[in-house]
TrEMBL record:
Belongs to the small heat shock protein (HSP20) family. InterPro entries: A-crystallin/Hsp20_dom, HSP20-like_chaperone, Small_HSP. Transmembrane segments: none annotated. Residues 47-159 form the SHSP domain. The lineage of its organism: Bacteria, Pseudomonadati, Pseudomonadota, Betaproteobacteria, Burkholderiales. This is HSP20 family protein. Gene3D superfamilies: 2.60.40.790. It comes from the Bacteria.
Length: 160
């Protein structure tokens, strides 16, 4: 009997290790993308609408930094982008489209309301020449890297 349970036990341990690794990977990759959404009622009171994912890629190139954010279901007019020092802030509001008809939601996984996502930039950027485009639910921000004087060698001269 012990020889029959050993392969099963080994398979279960392997499955558990694989599942645990998958959760760790998901938590690592999505942890930074978790964003709190808030909404205001008619009286202006703000409450938590919940958490949502704002998946983001940040790529550093020689001449620029490119940020790509997935923000489906939004209009470009609902987005605001600010650069303050080494911080890029993207904020906006995702509106719930009210569908007509009878019925009630049984599953709600989409986040709605206002949000703000802040990223620390790895290099100084030229905010004046930054450009942003929003197309098909993807916000792309291109920030030229700021010119900084490169180090230079200072010659030592003889006194005299």
């Amino acid at each position: 009997m012990g020889t029959l349970t050993a392969p099963w036990r080994q398979g279960a341990q392997h499955a558990w290790a694989s599942l645990a690794e998958g959760w760790r990977d998901l938590r690592r990759r999505a942890g930074g993308a978790l964003t709190r959404f808030r909404h205001s009622d008619a009286a202006g009171r703000e409450d938590d609408a919940g958490w949502g994912l704002v998946a983001t890629d940040l790529r550093v190139e020689d001449e620029r930094i490119v940020v790509r954010m997935e923000l489906p279901g939004m209009n470009r007019e609902d987005l605001q982008i600010d650069i303050n020092g080494d911080r890029l802030s993207v904020s906006g509001e995702k509106h719930l489209e009210q569908e007509s008809g009878d019925g009630s939601y049984r599953l709600v996984q989409c986040a709605y309301g206002s949000f703000q996502r802040d990223l620390i930039l790895p290099h100084a950027v030229d905010a004046q020449r930054t450009q942003a485009r929003y197309r098909n639910g993807v916000l792309r921000i291109e920030m030229p890297r700021a010119d900084r004087e490169r180090g230079r060698r200072i010659p030592v001269r003889a006194a005299g």
